[in-house]
């Protein structure tokens, strides 16, 4: 357990905002929670859980206890002829886990390569990319109650997974610290090539996609992301800033009459999911900036810190984009990032 006072969180968030936490604490095991709660000062302050801060906007100093799980071990807990079950520490780097699994030849995480963050943060917002969501492979999640360190274990069907959402953004938001996540991965599988961009790249690269390996799919995802998404170590960002909105079919068809090229994907409940990036491009924000706060020139869904932007400036830019999209399309974009 490591405890730091008046700690600069610049290296704990991928926007690289320099804000301070009253206390920053790294823990590995549940036993740390009761010990910390015995301290009168720490117990009197609010507690805030973070991972690597890759989906986070910090717009002020935090008068609270910021707590992070750094347990990062990987264990095989079960294996049979078809599958392997991995228990992975919350503090493990997400992309490192993906590479570990594809190098083993296991299927399930290859489409989620190069997403910044930790394993513990992945189920919180049910990360997804290229036709895959992390919920597809999770079997259970073990966490600690932040009040007393009591263990809370949830099976996948108890996590209320939805688009960029879970019980950890709802009833258990900031009430538990995820410690371990168990994944079921397949030894043999058909690649998930539902995403048109990924499918096209693999078809162009290989004569046949019938015998692809997890590593080949993973490498294709990495190549696509490297062309479209900035490395947060070089250019501060938090990945997709807004969620893709869902609108009624009536609303969609009304917009389609005005904008025939508006993309949309029908969902099982009859709604239409519209790419937020397309909406932002149509209101001419792609590649623009106000001071050091800007919209990435290769992907309109990504807001970036060109150097000295503050959280408030990024949020002000986001609000201008949101207002322009509402005014033109009557669609209210919802932030995917978390603001503290």
Which short descriptors sum up this protein?
Uridine Diphospho-n-acetylenolpyruvylglucosamine Reductase, domain 1; five-stranded antiparallel beta sheet; Uridine Diphospho-n-acetylenolpyruvylglucosamine Reductase, domain 2; alpha+beta; 340 residues; Uridine Diphospho-n-acetylenolpyruvylglucosamine Reductase, domain 3
What order do the helices and strands come in, and which of them pair?
Layout: E1 2-8, E2 20-27, H1 32-37, H2 40-44, E3 47-49, E4 56-57, E5 62-69, E6 74-79, E7 83-89, H3 94-103, E8 128-129, E9 132-133, E10 138-145, E11 151-155, E12 176-186, H4 196-205, H5 214-228, E13 236-240, E14 246-247, H6 249-258, E15 265-266, E16 272-273, H7 276-282, E17 289-290, E18 293-295, E19 302-305, H8 311-329, E20 338-339
Parallel strand pairs: 2-5, 3-5, 4-20
Antiparallel strand pairs: 1-2, 6-7, 7-12, 8-9, 10-11, 10-12, 13-19, 14-16, 15-16, 17-18, 18-19
Helix pairs in contact: 4-5
What features would you describe in this structure?
By secondary structure, the protein is α+β, with helices and mostly antiparallel strands. It has 3 domains: 2-69, Uridine Diphospho-n-acetylenolpyruvylglucosamine Reductase, domain 2 (2-Layer Sandwich), CATH 3.30.43; 74-228, Uridine Diphospho-n-acetylenolpyruvylglucosamine Reductase, domain 3 (2-Layer Sandwich); 236-339, Alpha-Beta Complex (Uridine Diphospho-n-acetylenolpyruvylglucosamine Reductase, domain 1), CATH 3.90.78. It contains 8 helices and 20 strands. The chain has helices at residues 32-37, 40-44, 94-103, 196-205, 214-228, 249-258, 276-282, 311-329, and strands at residues 2-8, 20-27, 47-49, 56-57, 62-69, 74-79, 83-89, 128-129, 132-133, 138-145, 151-155, 176-186, 236-240, 246-247, 265-266, 272-273, 289-290, 293-295, 302-305, 338-339. It has a 5-stranded antiparallel beta sheet, with no helix packed on it. Strands 1-2-5-3 form a 4-stranded mixed beta sheet, with no helix packed on it. A 4-stranded antiparallel beta sheet has the order 13-19-18-17, covered by helices on one side. Strand 8 and strand 9 form a beta hairpin. It is globular and about 65 Å long. The two termini are 24 Å apart. The model has no long low-confidence stretch (mean pLDDT 96).
């Amino acid at each position: 357990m490591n405890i730091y006072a008046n700690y600069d969180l610049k290296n704990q968030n991928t926007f690289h905002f320099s804000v301070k936490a009253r206390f920053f604490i790294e823990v590995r095991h549940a036993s740390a929670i009761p010990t910390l709660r015995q301290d009168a000062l720490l117990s009197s302050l609010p507690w805030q859980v973070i991972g690597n801060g890759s989906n986070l906007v910090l717009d002020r100093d935090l008068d609270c206890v910021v707590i992070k799980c750094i347990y990062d071990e990987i264990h095989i807990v079960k294996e049979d002829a078809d599958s392997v079950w991995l228990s992975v520490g919350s503090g493990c780097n997400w992309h490192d886990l993906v590479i570990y699994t594809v190098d083993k030849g296991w299927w399930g995480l290859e489409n989620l390569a190069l997403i910044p963050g930790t394993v513990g943060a992945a189920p919180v917002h049910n990360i997804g990319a290229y036709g895959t969501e992390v919920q597809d492979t999770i079997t259970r999640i073990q966490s600690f109650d932040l009040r007393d360190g009591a263990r809370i274990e949830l099976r996948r069907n108890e996590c209320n997974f939805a688009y960029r959402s879970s019980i950890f953004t709802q009833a258990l938001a900031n009430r538990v610290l995820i410690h371990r996540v168990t994944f079921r991965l397949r030894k043999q599988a058909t690649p998930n090539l539902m995403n048109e961009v990924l499918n096209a790249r693999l078809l162009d690269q290989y004569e046949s996609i019938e015998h692809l390996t997890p590593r080949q799919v993973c490498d294709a995802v990495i190549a696509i992301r490297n062309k479209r998404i900035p490395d947060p170590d070089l250019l501060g960002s938090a990945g997709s800033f807004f969620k893709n909105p869902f609108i009624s079919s009536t609303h969609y068809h009304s917009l389609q009459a005005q904008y025939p090229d508006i993309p949309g994907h029908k969902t099982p409940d009859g709604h239409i999911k519209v790419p937020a990036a397309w909406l932002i491009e149509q209101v001419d924000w792609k590649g623009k900036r106000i001071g050091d706060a800007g919209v990435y020139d290769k992907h309109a869904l990504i807001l970036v810190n060109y150097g000295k932007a503050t959280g408030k400036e990024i949020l002000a830019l986001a609000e201008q984009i949101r207002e322009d999209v509402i005014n033109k399309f009557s669609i209210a974009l919802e932030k995917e990032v978390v603001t503290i």
